[in-house]
Amino acid sequence: MNCVEKSAKTINEAVENALRELNLNKDQVEIVVLEEPTKGLFGIIGGKPARVKVSQKENPSIRAKNFLENIMKAMKLDVEINIDENEEKVKVNINGPDLGILIGRRGETLDALQYLVNLSANKSFEKRKRVLLDIEGYRKRREETLKKLAYRLADKAKQRGRNVVLEPMNSMERRIIHTALQDRVDIYTFSEGDEPYRKIIISPKK
């Protein structure tokens, strides 16, 4: 958690100095007055300045970033963590060299890491925010790959007149396939099986 202690002639001045250093506003911090300012003899000698402790309030995005920074440090990975937050979700993108180890086969490691980040970020908060984790734009590239696959297999199902069964996918990837083909009038899609082996069927309309 970002935290600084500042001293100044007044409490307000000390707080402003702290906010400036943290690059935050008052709504984003907690303020503890450590020492009240005192006037010295004749208002000059022996006076003490105000001293405050200003800490950034915790929220899901801060928790997510701290959690990931600790993991990256433990793995000795040099990364840049970018966060984009709104009222409902926190989008986190990690950039850096040689991050394939964090993605894993078809994003399996990335999905597991995202699950852990969500647990850490939302712990003890009444209002939960969904954390969406991406690495080097992998999810966008994977989405484009899945869309192309969906179009190609939909054409195949139509041409052959029989079902095409896709490999098992997680719920996010199945949603991409369903959405990509939802406007097709010549085929329809449905899912069958149990997690983690649930798969999509592309079926031609008779």
Describe this structure in words.
The protein is an alpha+beta fold. It folds into 3 domains: 3-56, 2-Layer Sandwich (Defensin A-like); 60-136, K homology (KH) domain (GMP Synthetase, Chain A, domain 3), CATH 3.30.300; 140-204, Ribosomal Protein S8, Chain: A, domain 1 (2-Layer Sandwich), CATH 3.30.1370.50. 39% of the residues lie in helices and 26% in strands. The protein contains 6 helices and 9 strands. It has helices spanning 11-22, 60-74, 100-103, 108-122, 138-160, 171-181; strands at residues 3-8, 29-35, 50-56, 80-85, 89-95, 130-135, 164-165, 187-192, 199-204. The strands form 3 sheets. It has a 3-stranded antiparallel β-sheet, covered by helices on one side. It has a 3-stranded mixed β-sheet with strand order 4-5-6. A hairpin with a 3-residue loop joins strand 4 (80-85) and strand 5. Helix 2 crosses helix 4 (108-122) and helix 5 packs across helix 6. The mean pLDDT is 89.
